[in-house]
Amino acid sequence: MLENCQSLQQHWGGVSDVIDRWLEERRELLVKYCELSEIKNFDGANSDHGSKLQNFCELMVDYVSVGHFEVFEQLAAEGKAFSDKEGLEKGAALMEKIQPSTELILDFNDKYLATDDLDALTTDLSEIGETLAQRFESEDKMIEVLHHSHVSQLIEEP
Predict the structure, then answer these.
(1) Measuring CA to CA, which residue among 68, 78, 82, 59 is closest to residue 16?
(2) Are 78 and 147 a contacting pair, CB within 8 Å?
(3) Which pairs with CB-CB distance under 8 Å and at least 24 residues apart come from 147-155?
(4) Fewest Cβ atoms closer than 10 Å to its Cβ: which of 17, 65, 98, 147?
(5) What is the pTM of this model?
(6) Per-residue pLDDT averaged across 24-50, rounded?
(7) What is the pLDDT of residue 99?
(8) Within 10 A of 143 (CB to CB), how many other CB atoms are there?
(9) Span 72-81, mean pLDDT?
Protein backbone atom coordinates (compact mmCIF):
# COMPACT_ATOMS: atom_id res chain seq x y z
CA MET A 1 0.00 0.00 0.00
CA LEU A 2 2.86 2.37 0.82
CA GLU A 3 4.44 1.60 -2.57
CA ASN A 4 1.15 2.41 -4.27
CA CYS A 5 0.92 5.70 -2.38
CA GLN A 6 4.49 6.64 -3.31
CA SER A 7 3.86 5.68 -6.93
CA LEU A 8 0.73 7.82 -7.02
CA GLN A 9 2.57 10.69 -5.38
CA GLN A 10 5.37 10.52 -7.96
CA HIS A 11 2.90 10.30 -10.83
CA TRP A 12 0.57 13.08 -9.71
CA GLY A 13 3.52 15.15 -8.54
CA GLY A 14 4.49 15.07 -12.23
CA VAL A 15 1.10 16.58 -12.99
CA SER A 16 2.01 19.41 -10.65
CA ASP A 17 5.17 19.97 -12.68
CA VAL A 18 3.13 20.05 -15.92
CA ILE A 19 0.72 22.52 -14.36
CA ASP A 20 3.56 24.66 -13.02
CA ARG A 21 5.22 24.85 -16.46
CA TRP A 22 1.86 25.66 -18.03
CA LEU A 23 1.16 28.43 -15.54
CA GLU A 24 4.62 29.83 -16.28
CA GLU A 25 3.62 29.88 -19.97
CA ARG A 26 0.49 31.76 -18.91
CA ARG A 27 2.62 34.34 -17.13
CA GLU A 28 4.75 34.78 -20.24
CA LEU A 29 1.62 35.07 -22.37
CA LEU A 30 0.31 37.82 -20.09
CA VAL A 31 3.61 39.69 -20.34
CA LYS A 32 3.41 39.59 -24.15
CA TYR A 33 -0.24 40.66 -24.01
CA CYS A 34 0.68 43.66 -21.84
CA GLU A 35 3.49 44.62 -24.21
CA LEU A 36 1.03 44.63 -27.11
CA SER A 37 -1.59 46.50 -25.10
CA GLU A 38 0.86 49.33 -24.47
CA ILE A 39 1.11 50.08 -28.19
CA LYS A 40 -1.37 52.84 -29.01
CA ASN A 41 -1.10 53.01 -32.80
CA PHE A 42 -0.36 49.76 -34.54
CA ASP A 43 1.47 49.94 -37.82
CA GLY A 44 1.73 46.83 -40.00
CA ALA A 45 4.87 48.24 -41.58
CA ASN A 46 6.54 48.46 -38.16
CA SER A 47 8.44 45.17 -37.91
CA ASP A 48 8.54 45.45 -34.11
CA HIS A 49 4.72 45.55 -33.95
CA GLY A 50 4.40 42.59 -36.29
CA SER A 51 7.04 40.63 -34.40
CA LYS A 52 5.37 41.24 -31.04
CA LEU A 53 1.99 40.25 -32.45
CA GLN A 54 3.36 37.09 -34.05
CA ASN A 55 5.15 36.13 -30.84
CA PHE A 56 1.97 36.70 -28.83
CA CYS A 57 -0.09 34.59 -31.24
CA GLU A 58 2.43 31.74 -31.11
CA LEU A 59 2.51 31.76 -27.31
CA MET A 60 -1.27 31.90 -27.11
CA VAL A 61 -1.75 28.93 -29.46
CA ASP A 62 0.98 26.96 -27.66
CA TYR A 63 -0.63 27.73 -24.31
CA VAL A 64 -4.06 26.58 -25.50
CA SER A 65 -2.58 23.43 -27.06
CA VAL A 66 -0.73 22.43 -23.90
CA GLY A 67 -3.91 23.05 -21.93
CA HIS A 68 -6.06 20.85 -24.11
CA PHE A 69 -3.59 18.10 -24.97
CA GLU A 70 -1.62 17.82 -21.74
CA VAL A 71 -3.05 19.59 -18.72
CA PHE A 72 -6.77 18.94 -19.16
CA GLU A 73 -6.12 15.30 -20.10
CA GLN A 74 -3.91 14.83 -17.03
CA LEU A 75 -6.50 16.46 -14.79
CA ALA A 76 -9.24 14.19 -16.14
CA ALA A 77 -7.01 11.14 -15.67
CA GLU A 78 -6.35 12.20 -12.09
CA GLY A 79 -10.07 12.61 -11.44
CA LYS A 80 -10.67 9.12 -12.85
CA ALA A 81 -7.83 7.61 -10.82
CA PHE A 82 -9.35 9.00 -7.63
CA SER A 83 -12.88 8.01 -8.71
CA ASP A 84 -13.86 11.66 -8.32
CA LYS A 85 -17.22 11.62 -10.08
CA GLU A 86 -18.21 15.06 -8.79
CA GLY A 87 -14.85 16.55 -9.82
CA LEU A 88 -15.12 15.02 -13.29
CA GLU A 89 -18.62 16.44 -13.72
CA LYS A 90 -17.44 19.89 -12.64
CA GLY A 91 -14.40 19.54 -14.91
CA ALA A 92 -16.63 18.68 -17.88
CA ALA A 93 -18.80 21.73 -17.17
CA LEU A 94 -15.70 23.91 -16.98
CA MET A 95 -14.46 22.50 -20.29
CA GLU A 96 -17.73 23.59 -21.85
CA LYS A 97 -16.99 27.11 -20.60
CA ILE A 98 -13.39 26.96 -21.86
CA GLN A 99 -14.08 25.60 -25.36
CA PRO A 100 -15.59 28.78 -26.86
CA SER A 101 -12.49 30.72 -25.79
CA THR A 102 -10.32 28.23 -27.67
CA GLU A 103 -12.24 28.98 -30.84
CA LEU A 104 -11.94 32.75 -30.32
CA ILE A 105 -8.21 32.45 -29.67
CA LEU A 106 -7.66 30.37 -32.80
CA ASP A 107 -9.75 32.83 -34.84
CA PHE A 108 -7.66 35.74 -33.50
CA ASN A 109 -4.48 33.86 -34.41
CA ASP A 110 -5.71 33.03 -37.91
CA LYS A 111 -6.83 36.61 -38.52
CA TYR A 112 -3.54 38.19 -37.53
CA LEU A 113 -1.30 35.64 -39.17
CA ALA A 114 -3.08 36.32 -42.46
CA THR A 115 -3.06 40.12 -42.47
CA ASP A 116 -0.86 43.16 -42.02
CA ASP A 117 -3.98 45.27 -41.49
CA LEU A 118 -3.80 46.12 -37.82
CA ASP A 119 -6.59 48.72 -37.71
CA ALA A 120 -8.87 46.53 -35.58
CA LEU A 121 -6.10 45.11 -33.41
CA THR A 122 -6.71 47.39 -30.42
CA THR A 123 -10.36 46.35 -30.25
CA ASP A 124 -9.51 42.69 -30.90
CA LEU A 125 -6.83 42.75 -28.21
CA SER A 126 -9.33 44.07 -25.70
CA GLU A 127 -11.73 41.27 -26.57
CA ILE A 128 -9.04 38.60 -26.45
CA GLY A 129 -7.90 39.96 -23.07
CA GLU A 130 -11.39 39.49 -21.67
CA THR A 131 -11.55 36.03 -23.23
CA LEU A 132 -8.23 35.06 -21.66
CA ALA A 133 -9.26 36.37 -18.23
CA GLN A 134 -12.46 34.29 -18.29
CA ARG A 135 -10.56 31.26 -19.56
CA PHE A 136 -7.90 31.55 -16.84
CA GLU A 137 -10.61 31.69 -14.19
CA SER A 138 -12.20 28.48 -15.49
CA GLU A 139 -8.80 26.79 -15.82
CA ASP A 140 -7.93 27.69 -12.24
CA LYS A 141 -11.22 26.22 -11.05
CA MET A 142 -10.50 23.04 -13.01
CA ILE A 143 -7.07 22.72 -11.39
CA GLU A 144 -8.67 23.22 -7.99
CA VAL A 145 -11.43 20.68 -8.62
CA LEU A 146 -9.37 17.96 -10.30
CA HIS A 147 -5.90 18.35 -8.81
CA HIS A 148 -5.61 20.35 -5.60
CA SER A 149 -8.57 18.52 -4.10
CA HIS A 150 -6.58 15.24 -4.33
CA VAL A 151 -3.28 16.49 -2.91
CA SER A 152 -4.23 15.54 0.64
CA GLN A 153 -4.85 11.97 -0.54
CA LEU A 154 -1.25 11.78 -1.79
CA ILE A 155 0.42 12.86 1.45
CA GLU A 156 2.00 9.93 3.23
CA GLU A 157 0.77 9.03 6.67
CA PRO A 158 3.51 9.50 9.33
Answers:
(1) 78
(2) yes
(3) 147/12, 147/15, 147/16, 147/19, 147/75, 147/78, 149/84, 149/87, 150/12, 150/78, 150/82, 150/84, 153/82, 154/5, 154/8, 154/9, 154/12, 154/13, 155/9
(4) 17
(5) 0.83
(6) 86
(7) 96
(8) 21
(9) 88
CA-closest candidate to residue 60, choices 98, 99, 30, 19: 30
Question: 61 and 106 in contact (C-beta within 8 Å)?
Answer: yes
pLDDT tens digits, one per residue of 107-154: 999 999 887 778 889 999 999 999 999 999 999 999 888 876 665 555
CATH code of the domain in which 59 resides: 1.20.120.1370
Question: DSSP letter string over the chain?
Answer: -HHHHHHHHHHHHHHHHHHHHHHHHHHHHHHHHHHHHT-SS--TT-HHHHHHHHHHHHHHHHHHHHIIIIIHHHHHHHHHHTT-HHHHHHHHHHHHHHHHHHHHHHHHHHHHHS----TTHHHHHHHHHHHHHHHHHHHHHHHHHHTGGGHHHHSPP-
Q: Domain of 99?
A: 2-154
Number of domains in the chain: 1
CA triple 28-32-37, angle to 5 deg: 145
Q: Specify the pLDDT at position 115.
A: 76
